[in-house]
Amino acid sequence: MNCKPAQRHLPRDKAMPSTRSDQTISCATAAVLLGLLAGCQRPAQPLPAPPVFPPATVSSPSSRIFESSVDNAAAWTPGQSDFIKFSGSDTVYFTRGSSDIDLEASAILDRQAQWLVRNPGIRATLHGHTDERETGQAALAIAERRASAMRRHLVSRGVAVERLSVKSFGKEQPVAAGSTQTDWARNRRGQTVLLPLGQ
Amino acid sequence: MKTIKPAWAMACATFLLASTVPAMGQPLRVDITGGEKKTIPIVVPDVLVGAAAPETQSQDLGTYLAAVIRADLESTGLFEILPAAPVSSRVAPLAAATYRASGAQILVSAAVRMNGEQALTYECAYIDVFSGQTEASSTITLDRSELRRAAHKCADIIFSNITGDPGHFDTRIAYIQREGPKTSGKLRLAIMDQDGAGIRPISNGASHVTTPAFSQDGQTLAYSVQDQSGAAIVVQSLRTGAVKRLDLPEGIPFGPAFIGTTGELLVTIARAGNSDIFRVDPSSNTVRALTDMPGTDTAPSPSPDGSLIIFESDRSGTSQIYVMNADGSNQRRITFSGSAYGAPAWSPQGNLIAFTQKTEAAFRIGIMRPDGSRERLLTDGWQDEAPSWAPSGRAIIFQRTLQGDLPSEFWTTDLAGTVRRKLTANRGLTQPSWSGLRP
């Protein structure tokens, strides 16, 4: 019988068991009880596919920075983690071939704009990306369109346009290497990257 | 129902048979544009010189170079390479009579001679085995650091004398090498010989480089870079090492394309969500917009005579191929099949364009006439894209992406859609640009 740890059935925001021994005991108990039933239960249900628009996570700021463009890899901006915490995410997502800012992206960009307005000394670069299912130059164009759409939105919410620059990486900097719909959805993104003070 | 009398059938068959056997001693004509391809039996014996070079790893120079010629010719699919015993260079130039029994129609006599410390001389001759005539010959002299080029130049001589088109062997490919996993983001501009040898990195992997283009003579590179100084098109001389960042209107420029040998370039600039094609003259610093429609106009490719430009535009709602005059006037759509199209590339002969057909199921390379007619798909991968023509106009290199976390590859195809060769020198290869013949 394949006993998966219990926490995988819980929504992400629930507390997780902290020790391996807890998991082992609860697993053993379950095994005894269920073993008495005719027809052993099948292993845990397969997980549902991850949501197309991943919920905001507060990952370690340095890993976010290293995930972004190569030339920002070494930059550690003090505000980035605070920015992500406040905004919910530094990344918004798009549908295939589109640069439309949907409701979820709009809500995140609104929060980003509020943070930027409250922290006037900081500049940011908007990084546009596409999935692999575009040809190279079309991808560069679409990615720029996405970054520009984000900039337009932030400017409309009060951020001075001179604080925002745009970069296009086309399809050359994926975060997901596979070729599933989920991988593609994760790659169709625009990331707001704060620049170190003084830049 | 009429029945065919056996006598008539025999006569018919004999007549047809006789008309397909080439007359002895006549130059061979090869038709690869239709019907069944027949290969030409050819022999390229190793002409041993009794010396090796550091690159050949103690293999005789003659053996090493003959192998390069054979691989070049074999890659075209036009030749059947027959085996032959190595011979000493004392015997060169080789005699046709020796090879009549082998069934070869063409003998390549290629003998290398060291010319002092630095240079080597390659005596290359194309000999018709039936007549014993030397149809073409050339003495190729190069610095010994470029010894593979001697073999490539010899293969070009053979190829062009047989087909009437220039060869494509003494050429290079510029490309972007993805280093490590797809998600590493490390991209390096590099060049290599068209057979995958001689890989040479050009950029250091620190900045984001894309869309390289080789000039016709293979001496200059243009590419897009985004780094600390911003986004730019860089023009770099491989001969002198000189590097120039072009002075362009605001926006993100990419996808440079050289216009013949004028030194002018076509460039896409993306700005505020709109991409347009510009014509740039670096020597006079003049820039002229050729398109100005809202939406994406990109991937320009000029005709060989520079009078027309094909490009990709989404102005109709989907990516399609358009043609316009060199000054941007008279823009008209040429693809109407219902699928989406992009990445057009004009062939060096001027009579065909290559493209990427994009559907939900697959991206495939195809060719069509410059007016959009006679469309033919040449490849059948899951994602084949970014076609670039060999200067012979008889081969196309493209990028093949595999599903999943696998590095992309370069493949070449001929115009019959027979995928001839995967370049195995490296993987993670993207965005190829095939140079013209090197002088």
Description:
The complex is a heterodimer of chains A (199) and B (439). Chain A is 38% helix and 10% strand. Chain A is built from six helices and four strands. Chain A has a four-stranded mixed sheet with strand order 1-4-2-3. A five-stranded mixed sheet of chain B has the order 3-1-5-6-7. Chain B contains three helices and 31 strands. The termini of chain B are far apart. In chain B, a hairpin with a 7-residue loop joins strand 25 and strand 26. At the A-B interface, helix 5 and strand 3 of A face strand 11, strand 12, strand 15, strand 16 and strand 27 of B.
Stretches of chain A where pLDDT is under 50 for at least 5 consecutive residues are 1-24, 50-75
Structural class of chain A: alpha+beta
Instruction: Count all strands of chain A and give the number.
Output: 4
Structural class call of chain B reads mainly beta
Mean of residue pLDDT values of chain A: 76
* Main sheet: strands, sense, barrel of chain A: 4 strands, mixed
Strand order of the largest sheet of chain A: 1-4-2-3
Name the chain pair whose interface involves the most residues: A-B, 32 and 50 residues
Largest sheet of chain B: 5 strands, mixed
Count of DSSP-assigned helices of chain B: 3
Instruction: Give the overall silhouette of chain A.
Output: globular
Order of helices and strands of chain A: HHHEHEHEHE
Kindly state the percentage of residues in helix of chain B: 10-25%
